[in-house]
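G., the chain you wanted modeled:
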Amino acid sequence: MLKKCSCGQPMDIRLRTVIYSKHVEIDNVPIYTCSKCFHTEILTGVKADLALLISKLGSQPQIQKINFNELNEWAFLIAKASDLELVHIPIQSIVGERIDQLLDLLLLSRSLNDVNWENDLVGRLTQLTRPVLMN
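Predicted structure as tokens:
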């Protein structure tokens, strides 16, 4: 789970704000950070979702603030695991609980024949199957 920086030090995962085109603040983006040389890298598994979001914003976006943890399940889980009230709960339990929630919502979306909601939930579950933490 740990990633080493090019300077040799271990990197921490932190939630940061990414500024796009001086107009958009994208909060809660999981980023590896080196406390020695301050090098940063976006987690491999969330890069594609961040790139997709930025491409949808276009080259001249409106001034806005976006919570990435509302769009990306790994950002959601890291934010949840960082909550001081939940630090005593093992991360595996938090992940399992979220998967159960998404599966329950998927059943509900199917029973309501809400195809858009169903597709969103399938996409969220798919995010959780992609490797996120790379060395």
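Residues 26 and 66 are 5 Å apart (CA to CA).

Shout if anything looks off.
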